Structure formats: structure tokens, C-alpha cells
Amino acid sequence: MNMEARVGAVVEGGQRALNSAAAAAHGSIVDAGARKFLQQQHNNSQQQHSQLGIIQQLLAGGVAGAFSKTCTAPLARLTILFQVQGMHSDVTALSKASIWREASRVMNEEGFRAFWKGNLVTIAHRLPYSSVSFYAYERYKSLLQSALGVENHRGNGTADLAVHFIGGGMAGITAASATYPLDLVRTRLAAQRNTIYYRGILHAFHTICREEGLLGLYKGLGATLLGVGPSIAISFSVYESLRSFWQSKRPNDSTVMVSLACGSLSGIASSTATFPLDLVRRRMQLEGAGGRARVYTTGLFGAFSHIIKTEGLRGMYRGILPEYYKVVPGVGIVFMTYETLKMLLQCIPSSN
């Protein structure tokens, strides 16, 4: 997540909107870590960033995020495969599952390219998701500032924090709802093994609408929206606490290193707390896929109860290890790509 997808904007409103919603809506550690890093970079070099227009910032962040997602796609697919293993499999056989064994199975049975199943949808998801997040946050921010009476008053920490959390959460909910069908299609494509039921993005959309109706594209949305608030709160509080503690102990350390480290750790904390919701979301997205019988018939909380009863508490964290392994390469790739694109875009003369 993802991831999902607000790495891009560095202007204050856009950055917070794109990033607050992403980790929350898609459970992505990488997005959460990159979010915090880029937000800190924005605070440290606001004048430099102001040289880029909003469209350029969105473009740079979107390309950086898409490239990072592509590089870490094999781990992302392994995460999804592990998350959905307990749906139609004998639970006793799952104890033998391992990352290396599953990766070998994919290579031998599906081929090397199969590690990138569904990645094209992930890339296609980023631009509309980032754009909706950005503009939704700006609208919500204006409404909240008007409601709180702080349009022309800066420095009100409590009011600013309220605007950030509520506005970011509402923007995340809006963007996740608007682009959710793409996320569901990505899950269904990535979860396919040897039997190919959906032959591509358009075929998946057409098949789902024909067999399950339009609402079939929104299966599992409740779990996504439920995770928005906790993800923002945990990621923000852990990041700020870690950064303050680090800087109090080692004030001369590189800001870049501190931001990357604290961003990654805050992303891990946030994703660990909300991973069960992400797992339930993935499984509910696959309900009825390919004509299979439904497994979870009692709603979101019934799905939680069913998984814990049949697979134990460990079942709620099935697939979290490959998710963790994405952290350092994912955040690092986002940073390197974003900074490179930013320098290139700054060299392009403005038409204004």
C-alpha cells in the first residue's frame, strides 16, 4: 500500500492528503515511510519545493511511487498470496508455508513474470488516487478551517492538528472509495495462480460486473475505510515521538537519515496494527471470485471471528513478513527517484 499512493505531493496540503490516506487505505508500510520522509523534506526545504508546480509535484511523486511499487511488486504479490491462503486451503497445510517455498512455487509453476501479476493496475491506480486525495484534502481543509474559524490564523497547533487528522482521514476515505474498484481488480489478478479466470484488467471489470453486479467491485471496502483513522494516528504519533527522541539524543545526525529511519519505523508500527484489517479486506475482495462459493457470510466482524477461530491469531498476520521486507528498498527507491525527478523538473523552464 498502498502505498498506496501518496508519496507524491510535497506542498503542505497535498503532501498530507496524498500520504495520510495511502498507508491507511492500503496498508502499505512503504507509503507510510516515504510519506513521513517526504513531509520532513518539505519542511526543511520549502522554498526549493515551491519552484515546482502542483502538477509537477504530483507527477514526480506518482512516478517515484509507481517505480518503487514495480521494484517491490514480487514481495507485494507474495504478501497477497499468503494473505488469502486460508480461504480455500486446508489450514493444517499452511504451517509449511514459507517465503522461499512460495517464491519457488511461483517461479516453477507460473514463471518469473508472474511476480508482477496485477502490478499494471497498481500503477494505473496511483494517478487518480493521488489526484483525488490531493484535491479532496484541499476542499476538506478549507471547509474545516472555515468551520473552526482559523482561515486567517496560523500557529494554532490544536486546530492545525485537527485539520490534518480529520481532513487527511476524509480525503483518504474519499480517494479510497473513488478508486476502490482498481484495488479490488489488482487483488484478483494477483491472487490468481495456475488457473487464469481474469485475462486482464478490462476482462476482470467486465466479468465482475456481469457475475457479481456493480457492488461486486466494492467488496471489502468497509475494512479499508475502518483502517484510515488508526493508520493516520499511529503513523503520525510514532513518527513524531521517534524523531523527537532521536534528535534529543543525536542532534547532529543527518536529517535525511533520521527521516528515513523514523518514517520506516512509523510505517512498520502502523501497518502492524492495521494488517489484520488489510488481510480481511483482501479476502473479502476475493469472495465469489471465479464462481467460487462465499466463505465469509456474516460481514466484516464475522470474517474476523471466522479467521481467528479457524486459523488462530497468527492467521491475522499471514503474509506480514514480505510486507516488512519491502520497507527499506521501497522507501529508498521512492526517495532516490523522487529527488532525481525533482532536479530534472526544476531544470525545465516554466511556461508562466
Could you characterize the architecture of this molecule?
It is a single chain. The chain has 352 residues and is mostly helical. It contains 15 helices and no strands. It has helices at residues 12-26, 29-44, 46-49, 54-71, 73-83, 99-110, 119-148, 157-191, 201-212, 221-226, 228-249, 255-285, 299-311, 320-325, 327-347. Helix 8 crosses helix 11 (228-249). The radius of gyration is 20 Å and the shape is globular. The chain starts with 11 loop residues before the first helix and ends in a 5-residue tail after the last helix. It comes from Salix suchowensis. InterPro entries: MCP (IPR002067), MCP_dom_sf (IPR023395), MCP_transmembrane (IPR018108). Pfam families: Mito_carr (PF00153).
Summarize the structure.
This protein is mainly α and 352 residues long. Helices cover 72% and strands 0% of the residues.
Q: Biggest β-sheet, characterized?
A: none
Quaternary structure: single chain
Secondary-structure element order, N to C:
HHHHHHHHHHHHHHH
Radius of gyration: 20 Å
Structural class: mainly alpha
Mean pLDDT: 81
General form: globular
Query: Which ranges are low-confidence, i.e. pLDDT below 50, for 5 or more consecutive residues?
Result: 1-28, 45-50
Count of extended strands: 0
The first-to-last residue Cα distance is 36 Å
Report strand %: under 5%
Task: Give the number of helices.
Answer: 15
Percent of residues in helical segments? over 70%
